[in-house]
C-alpha cells in the first residue's frame, strides 16, 4: 500500500507568492469533478461557438477511438432520436470516465487559452487524471489511453454499491467491518461508503435503526473499495508502459489529501492505489481554503465540487467559488453561463483575455442579438463535421456560398468543402493576403490575417464575418496553439508582420507545447505601425505578460523578430525576470555598439543592390516590380488621407518594420545563452551575417543547423514541410533540455 509522504507542504505552494508577498492578481485554482457529474450534451453549445473547445473534443475523440471502439462524440452529443441510448451509455464506467476527462481537459485548455492559468489544482477521483495531464505528468495521448483502460478494467469487475452518509471519517470507520470501505471524504461530515451490494443493504438497515440519514448513489460498481483490488497489479503494469514526469503545476492528491510529490506522481503504483484508496477531497480542498484570496473554479460539468466547497466548514465567506458549465437542470445557454463566469473572474481581478482570442468566442453583444433567432445556419453548425473529416459538405447558405467562391478563385480549386482546411488545400501567407483582400472587397470587412489560424475553414470563417470586428480589441498576441502543460513559447513576427507562417511550426512542436505568435500592430488598418524595435518590445512584452505574468520566459523571433525578441529579453532581464530560452530563427544581421554616439545602422548601396538582386532571383522580376508599384500606390492613398485596403496596409507595416530593423542598434551586452537556428547557406555566410550577434552575446551562443532556405519564398522554406519538422524537433529538444536542467 502506498504510504503518504511526510514531506508534503502544509500550505499553498510558494508559486502563489511573489517575493513572499501576496500576488497582485487573484490566483485561481482549478477543480475537476469526478464520476456522477456527467450528462448528455454537456457543453454542446460551446462546441458550436468556440473553436478551441470543439477542436479539442474532436482531437480527444479521435485519439480514443482505438481504445473505446466508438466515436465518443456520438455519446456526448447524440442525434435527438439517440438521446436515450446515449444516456444509458454514459452511465457505463468505461464510457463515463473518458467522457468526463475529455470535457474537463477541453475546458481547462480553453480557460488557459483565455489567460486563466491555474496556480494550483485538485481533481476528484478521475478528475485527478485531468489535473495530472494539465500539469504535465501524462501526455494527452497517454492520459486518454490510461483513463479508457481504467474505466474498462473497473467495468469488468463485479457490481457493487455506494452509500453517502453525513458522518465524519472517525464514525464511518466503526461501520465498515470486513467488506466495506471508506471510499470518499467530501467534507468534514460528508462521507461515502463503498462495497458489495448485500453488505451495503445491511448497512442501510443498521443506519435506519440508528436514525442516520443516507443516500444510495447511482453507480454500477463499488469504486475506491476492496472490490478494486483484483485489478491493481495489472493496472500498475499498464502505467509502467507510459512516460511519467514530475508535475509542472502543483495539485492535490486524492490519496494523501495534500500536495502531490514528484515521487508519487511518477510512481506507477500510486496510480493503482489511487483507484483503490479513499478520495480525500475534503482534506485536499482545505489546503486551498487556507488562502481566501484564491478563486476556486470548477472546470467540468455541473456544480458538484463547488457545492461541496461552499459547504466546507473551513471556507471563508469572502472566498469566491465559480463553475464553468451549467447544471443540467439549469435552463440557460452554455455560452451565456460561461461568459457570466468570465465577467465574475474579471470583476474579481483575474486577467481574462477572451476578447483577444480572434474568433475563439463570439462578441457578447452578437450573442445576445442572435439568441432569439431561429437561424438555419446555426442548426447546420450543429452537424458540422470535424476538421479532419473527409466528407464533402456543400455550402449551406448564401454567406458560405459567397465565401466558398472566393476560396475557389484564390486557390484555383473547384468544389471546395466548407470543412476543408485552407492550409491543406495549399494555402500560404501570400494566398492569404489575396484571400482577405477579396473578402474585404466583397463583404467590406477587414478580418485579421491571423483569423485563418483559428478559423481555417469556410464554415469557421463565416462565423468570423458575422461578428462585429470593431467590437473586439486588437491584440498582437495570437494563441496559435494555446494548449499544453509546458511553459508557453512566444514567437515574434518577421519583417512582413504577420504570423501565418508559424502554423506548421506550432503543429510540429506538439500538443503539449503552448505556442503564441506576436503580430505587428497596424495589420488591422486601425493601429499605427510602430517604427522602432524598442517600442515594439515594450508593447509586446506588456501583452505577453497578460498570458504569462511571471517567468521563466521562452522567447523566439523569426528574422527581424529576432531583434525584438532580444530587446524583450533585455527588458525582462533588467526587471529581474529569467529568460530560460532565447531562440532565434534565421535572425537578420545586427549592429551592436555600446557607444551612445553611435549612428543608426544604414545599409550601403552595395547591400541594397545585393538585396534587390536576391529578390529578383528568388521572387522574379514581376513580383518585385509589383511590390514597388504597391508601395507607390500606398503612399498615394496616405497622401489623400484614404483608408488603406488590407493588401496595402501590409505593405505599410512591412515598411515600418524594415525601417525599425535598419535603425536598430543593440547597446547592451546580453549575458544569457542564445540559440540560433540557421540554414546551411546562412552558416556558410557566417561570421559576416552574425558578426553583431557574436559581439553582443557574452553568454553561450549556440548555433544549430537546420534544412531549407531563407529567401527562396516568403517565408523561407525552413518554415515549411518537410524542413519545419526538423526545426520543431530541435526547438523542442532545446526547451526540454532547459526544463530538465
What's this model, at a glance?
The chain is of the alpha/beta class and 741 residues long.
Helix and strand arrangement:
Elements: E1 28-32, H1 44-49, H2 51-68, H3 72-76, H4 83-89, H5 93-113, E2 120-123, H6 127-134, H7 140-155, E3 161-165, H8 169-173, E4 181-187, E5 190-195, H9 197-210, E6 215-216, H10 232-239, E7 251-252, H11 262-265, H12 268-274, H13 281-289, E8 295-298, H14 304-311, E9 321-323, H15 334-347, H16 364-370, H17 376-381, H18 398-411, H19 429-443, H20 451-454, H21 458-466, E10 477-481, E11 489-492, H22 503-509, E12 515-518, H23 533-547, E13 553-558, H24 561-574, E14 579-585, E15 591-592, H25 605-619, H26 621-639, H27 646-662, E16 665-666, E17 674-679, H28 680-684, H29 691-696, E18 701-706, H30 723-740
Parallel strand pairs: 1-2, 1-8, 2-7, 8-9, 11-12, 11-13, 13-14, 14-17, 15-16, 17-18
Antiparallel strand pairs: 3-5, 3-6, 4-5, 10-12
Provide a descriptive summary of the structure in words.
The protein is of the alpha/beta class and 741 residues long. Helix content is 43%, strand content 11%. The protein is built from 30 helices and 18 strands. α22 (503-509) crosses α30 and α25 (605-619) crosses α26. It is globular. Residues 1-24, 356-390, 615-624 and 640-644 have low confidence and may be disordered.
Amino acid at each position: 500500500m502506498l504510504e503518504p509522504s511526510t514531506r508534503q507542504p502544509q500550505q499553498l505552494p510558494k508559486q502563489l507568492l511573489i517575493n513572499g508577498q501576496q500576488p497582485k492578481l487573484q490566483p485561481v485554482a482549478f477543480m475537476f469533478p469526478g464520476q456522477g457529474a456527467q450528462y448528455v450534451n454537456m457543453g454542446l453549445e460551446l462546441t458550436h461557438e468556440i473553436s478551441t473547445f470543439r477542436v479539442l473534443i474532436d482531437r480527444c475523440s479521435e485519439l480514443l477511438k482505438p481504445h473505446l471502439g466508438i466515436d465518443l462524440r456520438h455519446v456526448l452529443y447524440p442525434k435527438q432520436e439517440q438521446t436515450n441510448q446515449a444516456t444509458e451509455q454514459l452511465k457505463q464506467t468505461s464510457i463515463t470516465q473518458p467522457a468526463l476527462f475529455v470535457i474537463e481537459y477541453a475546458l481547462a485548455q480553453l480557460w488557459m487559452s483565455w489567460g486563466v492559468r491555474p496556480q494550483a489544482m485538485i481533481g476528484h477521483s478521475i478528475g485527478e487524471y485531468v489535473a495530472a495531464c494539465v500539469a504535465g505528468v501524462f501526455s494527452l495521448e497517454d492520459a486518454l489511453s490510461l483513463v479508457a483502460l481504467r474505466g474498462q478494467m473497473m467495468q469488468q469487475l463485479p457490481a457493487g454499491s455506494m452509500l453517502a452518509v453525513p458522518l465524519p471519517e472517525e464514525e464511518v470507520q466503526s461501520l465498515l467491518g470486513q467488506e466495506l470501505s471508506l471510499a470518499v471524504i467530501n467534507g468534514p461530515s460528508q462521507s461515502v461508503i463503498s462495497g458489495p451490494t448485500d453488505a451495503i443493504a445491511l448497512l442501510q438497515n443498521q443506519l435506519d435503526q440508528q436514525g442516520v440519514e443516507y443516500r444510495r448513489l447511482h453507480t454500477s460498481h463499488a469504486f475506491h473499495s476492496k472490490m478494486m483490488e483484483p485489478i491493481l497489479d495489472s493496472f500498475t503494469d499498464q502505467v509502467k508502459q507510459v512516460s511519467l514526469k514530475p508535475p509542472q503545476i502543483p495539485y492535490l492528491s486524492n490519496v494523501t489529501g495534500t500536495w502531490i510529490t514528484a515521487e508519487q506522481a511518477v510512481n506507477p503504483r500510486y496510480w493503482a492505489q489511487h483507484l483503490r484508496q479513499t478520495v480525500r477531497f475534503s482534506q485536499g480542498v482545505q489546503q486551498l481554503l487556507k488562502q481566501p484570496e484564491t478563486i476556486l473554479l470548477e472546470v467540468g460539468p455541473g456544480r458538484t465540487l463547488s457545492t461541496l466547497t461552499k459547504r466546507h466548514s473551513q471556507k471563508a465567506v469572502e472566498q469566491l467559488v465559480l463553475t464553468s458549465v451549467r447544471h443540467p437542470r439549469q435552463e440557460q445557454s452554455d455560452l451565456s453561463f460561461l461568459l457570466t463566469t468570465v465577467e465574475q473572474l474579471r470583476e474579481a481581478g483575474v486577467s481574462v483575455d477572451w476578447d483577444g482570442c480572434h474568433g475563439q468566442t463570439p462578441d457578447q453583444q452578437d450573442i445576445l442579438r442572435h439568441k432569439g433567432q431561429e437561424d438555419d445556419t446555426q442548426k447546420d453548425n450543429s452537424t458540422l463535421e470535424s476538421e479532419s473529416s473527409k466528407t464533402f459538405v456543400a455550402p449551406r447558405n448564401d454567406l458560405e456560398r459567397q465565401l466558398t467562391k472566393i476560396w475557389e478563385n484564390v486557390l484555383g480549386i473547384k468544389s471546395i468543402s466548407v470543412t476543408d482546411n485552407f492550409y491543406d488545400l495549399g494555402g500560404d501567407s501570400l494566398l492569404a493576403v489575396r484571400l482577405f483582400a477579396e473578402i474585404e472587397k466583397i463583404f467590406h470587412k477587414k478580418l485579421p490575417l491571423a483569423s485563418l489560424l483559428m478559423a481555417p475553414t469556410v464554415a469557421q470563417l463565416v462565423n468570423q464575418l458575422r461578428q462585429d470586428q470593431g467590437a473586439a480589441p486588437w491584440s498582437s498576441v495570437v494563441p496559435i496553439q494555446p494548449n499544453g502543460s509546458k511553459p508557453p513559447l512566444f514567437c515574434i513576427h518577421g519583417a512582413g508582420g504577420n504570423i501565418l507562417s508559424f502554423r506548421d511550426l506550432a503543429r510540429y512542436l506538439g500538443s503539449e507545447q503552448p505556442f503564441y505568435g506576436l503580430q505587428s500592430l497596424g495589420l488591422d488598418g486601425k493601429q499605427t505601425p510602430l517604427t522602432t524595435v524598442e517600442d515594439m518590445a515594450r508593447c509586446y512584452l506588456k501583452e505577453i505578460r497578460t498570458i504569462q505574468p511571471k517567468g521563466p520566459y521562452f522567447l523566439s523571433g523569426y528574422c527581424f523578430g529576432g531583434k525584438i525578441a532580444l530587446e524583450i529579453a533585455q527588458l525582462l532581464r533588467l526587471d529581474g525576470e529569467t529568460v530560460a530560452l532565447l531562440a532565434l530563427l534565421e535572425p537578420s544581421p545586427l549592429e551592436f555598439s555600446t557607444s551612445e554616439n553611435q549612428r543608426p545602422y544604414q545599409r550601403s548601396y552595395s547591400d541594397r543592390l545585393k538585396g534587390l538582386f536576391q529578390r529578383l532571383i528568388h521572387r522574379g522580376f514581376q513580383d518585385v516590380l509589383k511590390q514597388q508599384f504597391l508601395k507607390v500606390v500606398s503612399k498615394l492613398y496616405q497622401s489623400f488621407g484614404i483608408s488603406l485596403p488590407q493588401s496595402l496596409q501590409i505593405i505599410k507595416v512591412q515598411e515600418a518594420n524594415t525601417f525599425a530593423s535598419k535603425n536598430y542598434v543593440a547597446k547592451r551586452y546580453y549575458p544569457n545563452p542564445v540559440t540560433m537556428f540557421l540554414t546551411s547557406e546562412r552558416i556558410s555566410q557566417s561570421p559576416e551575417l552574425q558578426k553583431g550577434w557574436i559581439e553582443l552575446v557574452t553568454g553561450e551562443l549556440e548555433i544549430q543547423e537546420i534544412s531549407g532556405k531563407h529567401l527562396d519564398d516568403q517565408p523561407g522554406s525552413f518554415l515549411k514541410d518537410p524542413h519545419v519538422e526538423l526545426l520543431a524537433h530541435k526547438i523542442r529538444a532545446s526547451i526540454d533540455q532547459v526544463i530538465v536542467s
